[in-house]
Amino acid sequence: MTTGGRVKSSAKQLARGAESSSVFEGVARGGYVANAVIHALIGVIVIVIASGGKGEGDQAGAMKAVAGAPAGFVVLWLIAVGLCALGVWHAAEGLLARDRSGDTKGSARKWGRRVAEWGQAAVFLVLGLISAAVAIGARPDADQTAEDASRELLRVPGGSLVLAAIGLAIAIAGVAFVTMGLRRSFRARMQIPDGALGRGVTVLGVVGFAAKGVALASLGVLLIVSALGTDADTAGSLDGAIDAMLALPFGPALAWTVGIGFLAYAAFTVARARFARM
Q1: pTM
Q2: Distance CA 77, CA 135 (A)
């Protein structure tokens, strides 16, 4: 066996070991609860902003709100551990994805699953690291960071095309979230019970996925507009997307709807911690 083959085999063995650990599974499920806390706070902050108040309606803003609470740093470390564990779980899921048919379509499905799982792993790991950073005193400004990164990218030849591509990818992800919500495809990865509880979880999933999709699509559009106009000041984070939403006709009502949707997504994510197939 080649060195690459041995590394791949060892990585898969570690992934199987992680997934077979009930303790690790419990911590990873706790990551969904941590994600729910963040989305609930974002929802509340968005509603406050839509009502004329001040706040940062993004993940960093939510974590800074936690940091300001009594013993907030403890909560942030718990969130960091849970999110990182969930990220590792998704990374293992992607690594262990298999092609059961052996044909081209099977291979495409396997790599599609891997890309999806590794994408989720990256998101959760980054959020976990941000939570840890805030716990030790960092106070990131996601909106300013996005503007600075966009400005540096626009100075590079072809950077506007890269920024537009990033914006398009985020917008497509937003559309995908809306589609997953409306088609209820999230049910395939969960063991949702029958009866009123199951129907309630499904409704929360539909509303939550759609709201998060709208927010992501708005963020993607902001980045595309920034790239086309070569103006980094129009780029931003989720907080910037909410601000842009407020400038639209009936913007406050739309932002209120998105905020409530984030709260629904948070409630759904708590249910996901219990009913996810892991």
Answers
A1: 0.81
A2: 6
